[in-house]
Amino acid sequence: MAVHPGRPGHAGVRRGGVTARLRLVGQVAALALVAGLFGLLIWKLAHNSSGVAGELAKGGHPMAPAFTLPLLDDTGQLSLADLRGKAVVVNFWASWCGPCKTEARALQAASVRYRGQGLAVVGIDLEDLKQDAQHFVHRFGVTYPIVRDTRKETIGKWGVTGYPETFFVDRTGRLVGERIQGGVDTERNRVRFAEGVRLALRTKP
Fold first, then answer.
1. Residue 26 to residues 13, 20, 36: CA-CA distances in angstroms?
2. Confidence of residue 203 (pLDDT cuts 50, 70, 90)
3. CB within 8 A of 78, min separation 6: which ones?
4. Distance between CA 75 and CA 77 in Å, rounded?
5. Is pTM beyond 0.85 here?
6. How far apart are CA 145 and CA 108, in angstroms?
7. Are residues 128 and 170 in the same domain?
8. Average model confidence (pLDDT) for the chain?
9. pLDDT in tens, 31-45
10. Does one domain contain both 83 and 130?
């Protein structure tokens, strides 16, 4: 039956129409808010220049941010300053990270291969349970030092946006090469990893 103006059903139809429009407006506003927050997240990741990664990406060679962190094996602490005079590969990782697992043996191999030339590899474990990190080290035969950053103090200073990420520090303490995002063993990163090691080693203390 048709509803005509002035009859009892007309107000209900109008209220229903208004309610539907309000619901639609609310849904659109919610979607816009989500899209805006997602866009802000992407922007922050793409423009993360709060750490030295931003300077490095612009072609600079900033000093590597200092850190002093406890060793995973409970033998004390390790400072980046302790390694001054050596070339250093700094790798940010977590045991639950898939690419971290696939690159572990490549990092271990580099540690052994270039040790005699003065290269040190250091892993910084983040957002992890200690026993999981220890299991990771045992599983992949990692012998280079691993430190734990339970407070995530290094992330902002270095400009880390995800795991794994790898940086190269020359013998004078400056960053060289490119920051590597993702596993160092992937096809797109192997050449950049080798070049980063070469640049770090070529400097004199």
1. 20, 10, 15
2. confident
3. 68, 69, 71, 122, 145, 147
4. 7
5. no
6. 10
7. yes
8. 85
9. 545 444 444 343 344
10. yes
